[in-house]
Amino acid sequence: MNDQRTTERAGMLAVALTAILWGTSGTAAAMAPELSAVTIGAIAMSGGGLLQAAVNARAIRAAWSSLIGQWPVALLGGICVMIYPLCFFGSMRIGGVALGTVVSLASAPLFSAVIERVADGRRLTLRWTIACALGIVGSAALALSRSESSHGDTLSGNHSAALGVGLGLLAGITYAGLSWAMRRLMNRSVPRGAAAGSVMGLGGVFLLPIVAVGVPAVVAHPETLGVLAYLVLVPQFLGYVLFSRGLGRIDSSTATTITLIEPAVATALAVGVLAEPITAVGWVGIALLATALLVLLAPRLPTSTGPASTSVEAESSTGRSTHEAVPRGRRGA
Q1: What DSSP letter does each residue of 35-53 carry, written as one string?
Q2: 145 pLDDT band (50/70/90 cuts)?
Q3: pLDDT confidence of residue 95
């Protein structure tokens, strides 16, 4: 049991590092104001995804038969990778940075929980529920603290907020979907590298037409190449390497909950690098997000109900139910 908890903590820390790297994206993108948010998001995600596929090409070839057997899951994950950055950056563009960030990131753990409950029959733990609630409230507090300082990059009209929320919800469900797809492939005997490389690589290919549309803007502003290279190599490539390692040890709903610390990192960088102000409400939000992470990492209290309660807790933590002793990879997708 201790070894299992150590493995889970290692996965949580890997995802926390991922969130830190992802949190640098907004500050980095601010260094390239000549490019639209959609262009930056498409190039960063496509480049990172294709690089993932290239690095894991040998693993993908070795697991090809397993991937073919699970092709609907891989395809679903690739489609989610394609849609996520467009909706995420589109939500911020239309509804505002604060609204887009909170709706997209805060809805992802909820969608992950629903997907795992419906698709995998996974039960939710009180620990996850508390951490998720703290993370969502903390994200909302950060959004309120930054709403007045956010640059006005929104559309005029009565429907901009509603459309921004809609795109944010779509971003949240696609982020949850790509996380679940990678975890599902790993649960069905596909190695981590092959799962991440196939899902991210497919998404990278699907994004290429949008990348092509944005190439003229990049050519016209070659000074943005350094920013794009950083976004591709660090948040998107290295970030998703760490994220996939974390998903190999924890379930997708826990992973998406941990990445709620991304807004805190982004806020800290905005304050320190871009000199954006932060209010007391913002600091409360950061404290709540830190508390959510501590709740997930905290040691479990011993129970007096014996092995039965331990097995239920183990089921909830790993995302596998006790009736999955027979590998689920032999079932259809």
Answers
A1: S-HHHHHHHHHHHHHHHHH
A2: low
A3: 67
